[in-house]
Amino acid sequence: MDRLAGANRSATSVRISQRKFSRPGSAAAVYLARADDVTHAMTAGGLSDGPVLLVPACSGVPAVVAREISRLNPPTVFALGSTAAVCDDTLRAAAGSRATGRLGGPDQTTTSVAIARHVWPGSAATVYLAAGGFSPDVIAGGALTDGPILLLGTDPSVLPQSIVSAIDDLAPARVVALGGQGQVTDAVLAAAARGRKTERIAGSNRYQTSAMIARRVFPTATVAYLARGDGNNIIDALPGGILVDGPMLIVPGGSTCSFLPAAARAYLADTRPTKVIAFGGAAAVCDPMLRQAALTAVPRPVPDCSRTRCVALTYDDGPGADTEALLNTLWSKNVPATFFVLGHRAKARPATVRRQAMEGHQVQNHTWSHPILRRMSLSAQHAEYRQTSNLLSSLGLPRTDMLRPPYGEYNANTRKLGVPLILWDVDPLDWRDRNSKTVRTRVLDATRPGSIILMHDWHRTTVAAASGIIDGLRARGYAFVTVDQLVPDARPGDVVFSRTRINRAG
Ligand SMILES: [Zn+2]
User: Fold this and answer.
1) Which residue in 70, 112, 303, 322 has the fewest CB atoms around it within 10 Å?
2) Nearest-angstrom CA–CA distance, 173 and 426
3) 3-state class of 471 per DSSP?
4) HSE-up of 290 (CA within 13 Å, CB side)?
């Protein structure tokens, strides 16, 4: 995984340019688009012979853009849209002594037709029709490579004559509507197609639509791009349309680092690109989401524990203040763990439990409030279990299907809760002896193939011990797995101490 990120929108567009046009002289042109309002450059993603660089409306050329133009030294610099989008002064200043051009007119339709005729001077296999205005679907459509996107005017029921002429000239085999009936009506689509084949690409939201476009253009892919697409943030993705080596998946940003949208997850799982690249920094695409995408595309290999020494690291009682540090260690070592969380602490740190799940760890149930279950009625025990499972489900995690009873204390009723009880066979007593070296030594001495190691991410000394424990176990030939991978056959009511020591129910 990787990032293409600059300090601002212009700088990020330059990073994208540098990826596609790494050699000076390799770009036939540079296209300038207005950074704060891309309605006039909405279809710029169709351009492929030069980068789209984002500039302020009419207040000079950012130094980072000037340097990129100088590096590429293209014969021509184009402005996209009318002079209200990129003014003549900016265009001249950016071009210097180079030739200038303008692809655009007074409205979005004219500009989209101008870009279409520039990129496809002859014919195109497909023409895409989309609504005017600000449309995330059109920006995601920058990944389309078999034909231009033409934009309707503000009235979706009117087919502009310039689009009819452009379709006649391009003579496509089919005309495809981008978006639902609200964007392009069936009547307009049929009128535009004039007997040609028609199709429609419309997801239930922008995230799903971008994944549908990805499947259409890249049924296989070695690289995939993630772009923040909530609100107007999708502008950052516009210059990415020139990257035609993989699809652009639109994802939500914002202060809540949310799970990767299901459609993007399914696409990555099916196509398995070897690399996932985010546009922008962590504020655009958060680290856990990027890691989730990378893990979905290239999952951690699961060892065959009947032939390999497997071990499960388990952490109870969190999440706590040091859990994020532990997650950093686990990610850097590429190790999955299993977290038996307390419901009330998960409620206080929802971002941390989401991160656990997004980064490939198993998140399981350690009750809501850490009671001694065997002293409680079956229904009270069940309430403790269910409250935590419900909380995690409300945070977008899967429902839990394992329980670690607090203190390892359980009774016959606990075994009737409908899930396996996960105990342990290695206990370094990290809660009592707050010494990282002691914890590490005890773990390394006691671990056997198939072991389940009990620790507590609540304690800083335990978190600090993780790196040495992982290195030590690796040196002894151990592979790390989650508990569900270690004991895939654990059933409701089983009491599990290790891979080979299980007290079966009934
Ligand atoms: Zn506990």
Assistant:
1) 70
2) 66
3) helix
4) 23
Which candidate, 213, 122, 126, 120, places its Cα nearest to that of 176? 126
Find the angle CA(323)-CA(404)-CA(350) to the nearest 5 degrees. Answer: 35
- Cα separation, 46 vs 54, in Å, equals 15
Query: ∠96-98-99 over CA atoms, to 5°?
Result: 125
Indicate which residue of 430, 456, 459, 494 is catalytic.
456
Examine the residue annotation and report whether 370 is marked as an active-site residue of this protein: no
Q: Ligand 1 centre from 218 Cα, in Å?
A: 47
Query: How far does residue 369's CA lie from ligand 1's centre (Å)?
Result: 9
Residue 318 per-residue DSSP state:
-
Measured between alpha carbons, how far apart are the two ends of the chain, in Å?
47
Answer whether 410's CB lies under 8 Å from 373's CB.
yes
pLDDT of residue 350: 97
Q: Of these residues, 287, 316, 457, 494, which one is catalytic?
A: 316
Tell me the pLDDT tens digit for each residue of 145-172: 889 999 998 787 899 999 999 999 999 9
Predicted local confidence at residue 300, as pLDDT: 96
Distance CA 488, CA 308 (A): 15
State the Cα–Cα distance between residues 23 and 338, nearest whole angstrom: 46
Which top CATH class is 310-503?
alpha beta
Per DSSP, what are the bridge partners of residue 76? 29, 99
Ranges of each domain in the chain:
2-297, 310-503
> For residue 57, how many other CB atoms are within 10 A of its CB?
14
Using the mean position of ligand 1's atoms as its centre, give its distance from the Cα of residue 318 in Å. 9
pLDDT (tens digit per residue) in 429-455: 999 999 999 999 999 999 999 999 999
pLDDT at 46 over 90: no
How many CB atoms lie under 10 A from the CB of residue 470? 22
The per-residue pLDDT for range 164-220, each reduced to its tens digit, is 999 999 999 999 999 888 889 999 999 999 999 999 999 998 899 999 999 998 999
C-alpha to C-alpha distance for 370 and 414, rounded to whole angstroms: 14
Q: How far apart are CA 429 and CA 417, in angstroms?
A: 27
Distance 327 CA to ligand 1 centre (A): 19
Bridge partners (DSSP) listed for residue 249: 226
Cis peptide upstream of residue 371 (ω within 30 degrees of 0) = no
Distance 117 CA to ligand 1 centre (A): 67
426 forms beta bridges with 453
